[in-house]
Design a protein that fits this description.
Blueprint: H1 2-108
C-alpha cells in the first residue's frame, strides 16, 4: 500500500512540473509576442519617418527647382536691362556726337 501512495504523489509532482513548465513557456511566448509587437511598432514609426523625409525631400527639390527658375528669370531680366541700358547709352553718345557736330559747324559758320 505504501507504493500506491508514492505513485500518486509522484504523478502529482510530475504534473505540477509539467504545469510549471507550460506556464514558463506561455510567459516566454508572451514576451516574444510583446517583443514582436514592439518591433512592428518601431518599424511602422520608421516607415512613417521615411515617408515624411521623402515628402520633405520632394518639397525641397521642388523649391530648389522653383528657385533655379526664379534665378534664371532674374538673370534674363538683368540681361534685358543691360541691353536696354546699352541701347540708351548708344543713343546718348549719338546725341553728343550730333551736338559736337552742330557746335563745330556753328564755329565754322560766321553767321
Amino acid at each position: 500500500m505504501p507504493n500506491d501512495h508514492i505513485a500518486p504523489e509522484q504523478h502529482r509532482r510530475e504534473a505540477e512540473g509539467v504545469r510549471e513548465k507550460a506556464e514558463e513557456l506561455r510567459e516566454v511566448r508572451d514576451q516574444h509576442r510583446e517583443a514582436l509587437e514592439t518591433v512592428r511598432e518601431e518599424r511602422e514609426r520608421l516607415r512613417e519617418a521615411a515617408e515624411a523625409a521623402r515628402v520633405a525631400a520632394e518639397e525641397a527639390r521642388v523649391a530648389a527647382d522653383d528657385a533655379r527658375h526664379a534665378a534664371m528669370d532674374a538673370v534674363h531680366a538683368t540681361a534685358e536691362t543691360l541691353q536696354a541700358t546699352l541701347a540708351h547709352m548708344k543713343v546718348v553718345e549719338e546725341m553728343r556726337q550730333t551736338l559736337r557736330d552742330i557746335r563745330n559747324v556753328a564755329k565754322l559758320d560766321p553767321n
